[in-house]
């Protein structure tokens, strides 16, 4: 339902729906639900809109959803848009947030699982 509100309303409604999804995506089941409902495609589509408030919320939403393996897989399509935001925004806050989102979407492996076991 929130996915519909992302794309079929005023800018204030889009921002509110993004904020709600951002809060929902904090929990693991929230991330999985967002991915299962097909919201990632709509989220990626919104990254082209030139609105700093919306962009900031979308970047946090992308970062949250990217913690889910399937979400991360679906978000690969967002990488060019995230890099564009990072390289063209005059806002340092948005630039850093975009860089963090890029890192999360590109995440492949946990470094600690590749470390040798501790010596006893």
What would you say this structure looks like, in words?
The radius of gyration is 15 Å and the shape is globular. The protein starts with a helix and ends in a 14-residue tail after the last helix. The mean pLDDT is 92. The protein has one domain (2-108): Alpha Horseshoe (Leucine-rich Repeat Variant), CATH 1.25.10.10. The protein has 120 residues and is an all-alpha fold. Helix 5 (52-65) runs parallel beside helix 8 (92-106). 34% of the residues are buried. It has helices at residues 2-7, 11-24, 28-36, 39-46, 52-65, 69-74, 79-88, 92-106. It is 68% helix and 0% strand.
- Mind telling me which CATH architecture this is? Alpha Horseshoe
- Domain tally: 1
The CATH topology assignment is Leucine-rich Repeat Variant
**Rg computed from alpha carbons, rounded to a whole number of angstroms:** 15 Å
- The general outline is globular
Any idea of the CATH class? Mainly Alpha
Give a short synopsis of this structure:
The chain is mostly helical and 120 residues long. The protein contains eight helices and no strands.
Topology:
Layout: H1 2-7, H2 11-24, H3 28-36, H4 39-46, H5 52-65, H6 69-74, H7 79-88, H8 92-106
Helix pairs in contact: 2-5, 4-5, 5-8, 7-8
Q: Which structural traits does this protein have?
A:
single chain, 120 residues, mainly alpha, Leucine-rich Repeat Variant, 68% helix, RSP14, ARM-type_fold, ARM-like
